[in-house]
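So, can you check what follows?
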Amino acid sequence: MTDSTRRRRRLAERLAADGVLVSPLLRAAVEAVPREPFLHPGVFLDEGPVWRPVTASGTAPAAWLERAYRYDTLTTQLDGHLTADQTIEPVAGVPTSSSTAPATVIRMIESLDLQPGHRVLEIGTGTGYSAALMCHYLGADNVTTVELDPQVAQRADTALETLGYSAWTVTGDGLLGHPRNAPYDRVIATCAVRRIPHTWVRQTKPGGTILATIGSWPYGTGLAKVTVDDDGNAEGRIIARSSFMQARAQAVVPIAGDLSARTAYVDSERKTTVPPTLLDDWMPAYVAQLAAPSAQLVRATLSDGTKLLYLFDPERECFAEFTADGNNWTARQGGPLPLWDTIEQALLAWQAAGHPEIDSVRLRVTQAAHRYWIDGAPDLRWEHRLD
């Protein structure tokens, strides 16, 4: 038995012991599919302000395997282009591709309720590891995986082919799905989206499932599981907290420039009823995104160390700026809509409803809109029109 085989079996044992891995067919896939080929040419290790590159070729085989089977996410690309073999020095950057933590991968695949013969569309191939697991489970011809980044797609395809998994590996915009192989029994997105594209609904069989993380903030996002009906709509709920990189076509452009200039013209100023720091918590952050889906929470620091907090909504051209006096907060708002009023009202309704968790959120996806609600809370209902 090779060291890789032993590590795969230990990974399966740990996933099963943690209650994540349940399906015997998926357990067989975890034990059979090596993770290390999907980390080529290397990974970046988080060392605070910088990322340290580590490559397979520059690491002892035993040490590389130990790293490959860690129970966490491994970053494989920075800034949309940089891989670990292209630098020998620690670098600053933003992760743009990774091998997701095994527990998250397995939990999502388990949530798909896969059955033999199912056809699956995966949005966001990444390293290709999750596609390989589904290929082992369903057969490679039943798995279509779409990746926007050509270099990432090529590396994943090479790893899949090397292991004998000739999945339908497509380079393109996953938000458009892949109609050529439709209809699918299951659609799974390994990136976060602001909303579920109706193209995915149209490419899914009635009774089929779509699983995707919804939200645009770095945290405060939820894993949605919806079932497609005979009328071309989909309905379900948020089943868990979830965090993924944003789909690149929907990635939020960070607010930059002179923030004082952006907030110079104020229409109103008042004390807040709830502190804006409540948005540091996961569920309040999710409620805020449901109330104002195009809003961004921005933190900044002045040269003297003063912390600043803002909300900007570029689509509706409004903002809120917050200042603290001890435990008291003041909101200065500008633009055609009172942004903080909208979010604060939703937060107060959420508190009044007894602080329901994220898995209480239900949603319905139609061609015209996304509708969200929490049962028994009439003030916690939102409709996001798509026109």
Observations:
- The chain has a mean pLDDT of 94.
